[in-house]
Every structure is written in C-alpha cells, then in structure tokens.
Specification:
Layout lengths: L1 E4 L1 H5 L4 H17 L2 E11 L2 E10 L4 E7 L8 E7 L5 E6 L1 H19 L6 E5 L5 H11 L4 E5 L3 H11 L6 E4 L12 E4 L18 E4 L12 H6 L2 E4 L2 H7 L1 H8 L9 E2 L1 H5 L12 E4 L4 H18 L3 E3 L2
Parallel strand pairs: 1-6, 7-8, 7-10, 8-9, 10-11, 11-14, 12-13, 12-14
Antiparallel strand pairs: 1-15, 2-3, 3-4, 4-5, 5-6
Helix pairs in contact: 2-3, 2-10, 3-4, 3-10
Length: 317
C-alpha cells in the first residue's frame, strides 16, 4: 500500500524550516557521494511536453520521480517515492507546494553559505507563485532589516506585500525602479519567467550575492552577460543540468566568454568549505535549475510526518 498525499494535506505539514533542512541534507548527500540526481528531461507531446526528473539515495534504497505536463491553465506536479530494492511504490504526492518550498529553500541554503553572514537588505525581483518562498527562506536564514520587492507592475508588487508581510519578520518595501531606488543590497534573488535579462551589471555592487532561480530553459535568461562576467565565483546546483538548462551561462559560454570548468557545483562548498570561503567584496552567483533530490529528501521528510500524524490515504499502487 502506498501513501497518497494531496496538496491540502502537504500544506498542513510543510514549512520553510523543514524545506531548508531537507535541501541542505540533499546537498550534503551529493557532497558525500551518497545520492544521485538526474537532470530534467522534456519529452515533446503535441504542443506541450512531459517533463520528468529523478533521484536516488543509496543508503536508504529510495528513488524519487517528479513528473508534470506544463499547462497555460496551471501545471500540476506529482512526486513518486519508490523502494529501490523491490520496486514497490511508497508514496504518491501532489507536489506543487513541495516544489515551491524546496525551490525557495535552495536559494536560502545557497545564501547561507555564499552571502555575507550579516546580510541585512534583500532585493527580490519577481512576485509570482515562486517568489513568496524565495523571500521566506531568506527571512528565516538571516536577521534581515528589509526586503525590497520589485516587479514591472505596481499592482503585483502591492499584492505581494499585502499578502505576505504578515509571514515575514523583515519589512517588505515596494520599489518601482531597481536602478535608482535601492542601494547597499546584500542579496538579490531573481525569480521570473522572463526570456530576456531583468537586471544588468550596473546595479551589481561588490559583496553582493545573487540567486537566479526563475529560468530552467536554455533560451531564457535573467542575468545579462556583463553581470555573469562581473562575478568572482559562479555556483550551480548541478553542472550537467546547468549545461542543458541555464541560459544565463549557456549564452556567454557559447561566445567563449566563460568556461564550464570555472563553474562550481554548490555541493563542493559543503565538501571543501575552506576552499570556497568568501572574501568580503566577492560577487557570487547561484544558478538554480532545481534538483529532483531536493524533492526526494523533502518528500521523505513530509511523508514521515504524515505517517506520524495519520495524514493521507493508503492506496493500492
């Protein structure tokens, strides 16, 4: 019998602390060589595609599969946990909230290790579905003073602030122009669906850390090439996946302006902490495409709580 968990049930369990711990655990597993994660594949189907990504944890003999079909009317994500020894289904989960929290948590974990420890000011670019957990993760990791919120539409900025201010310890402040209205930013988190860069190098000051988390397609870019070239160190969640999906890096690499050998797997920061200690003036970038291992570890932890609390339905699978 497998456990089936709906979105409503998962929202009763998941929180940012759980997601942060799960994503950091996932990176630790990669650093130790105890897990495998496979990049997203896209199977063209008519005018859409079947998207899927997978991961496995050796010592636990567990595998995970995330699958979804993008839709203009709203994409429905599912995550499956299976026993790697006998192939039995352990859990099937409706995984929109799961993905939202793990994506935000990844930026939080990356910033914990790459940004200045005393970071106080954040610039959040983008106010869509994924933006809330980007802000929440940084709000939980740091003792922030202020999160500046930018999107092109004033209505979107104000709706975001009205909806989420009560969930944050730090102050949310709308900004209409990121090039002239914000200064002394410690962390920039970009979470948009833009096909063209939404920030340029002119606003990037020394010491800033950037999370670029909105694009997972080779033809989309959030950061301009000058910003990429301005960075002292660039980290990715997975090199193989970045080579397939990270438009921010694929474009300048195709022009010979950067080389993949200089891009760093973030898990190496956990494996070799002394090697990647930040200098105060370093500009760092974390390019986040999303790993199935984040989903798997988070899903396992959610399932354990669900079983303890008697949440979910047992089904034949």
């Amino acid at each position: 019998m497998a456990l089936y968990l709906t979105e409503t049930e998962i929202k009763k369990i998941i929180n940012m602390e759980l997601a942060l711990n799960s994503v950091e655990e996932a990176f630790q597993l990669i650093a130790l060589g105890d897990a495998v994660t496979k990049p997203r594949e896209r199977l063209p189907v008519g005018s859409s595609s079947l998207n899927y990504m997978s991961a496995g944890i050796d010592k636990q003999n567990l595998t995970g599969l995330k699958v979804y079909v993008p839709s203009k009317n709203g994409t429905k994500f599912y995550f499956h946990i299976m026993n790697a020894l006998n192939g039995e289904m352990i859990a099937i989960m409706e995984a929109n909230a799961l993905g939202q929290f793990r994506t935000g948590a990844a930026s939080g974990v990356a910033s914990k290790y790459l940004a200045k420890k005393d970071s106080k000011k954040v610039l959040l670019i983008g106010t869509g579905y994924q933006a809330y957990t980007q802000a929440l993760a940084l709000d939980r990791v740091f003792e922030l003073d202020e999160i500046y919120v930018y999107s092109r539409a004033e209505e979107n900025r104000m709706n975001f602030i009205n909806n989420y201010s009560s969930a944050m310890k730090s102050k949310l402040t709308p900004v209409a122009d990121i090039e002239s209205n914000v200064n002394n930013i410690d962390i920039i988190s970009v979470i948009t669906n833009s096909k063209t860069p939404v920030i340029n190098s002119e606003i990037i000051e020394s010491g800033v850390h950037i999370n670029a988390a909105g694009s997972n397609h080779s033809l989309r870019r959030e950061l301009d090439t000058k910003t990429i070239l301005k960075a002292d160190k660039i980290f990715v969640d997975d090199i193989d996946q970045a080579k397939m999906e990270c438009g921010d890096l694929i474009y300048p690499e195709s022009l010979g302006l950067i080389q993949w050998r200089n891009i760093i797997n973030f898990s190496d920061v956990l494996k070799f902490p002394d090697r990647f200690k930040r200098n105060f003036k370093d500009i760092t970038i974390f390019e986040s495409q999303g790993l199935a291992l984040w989903d798997l570890v988070t899903a396992i932890n959610v399932c354990e709580i669900a079983k303890t609390k008697g949440i979910g339905e047992k089904i034949n699978a």
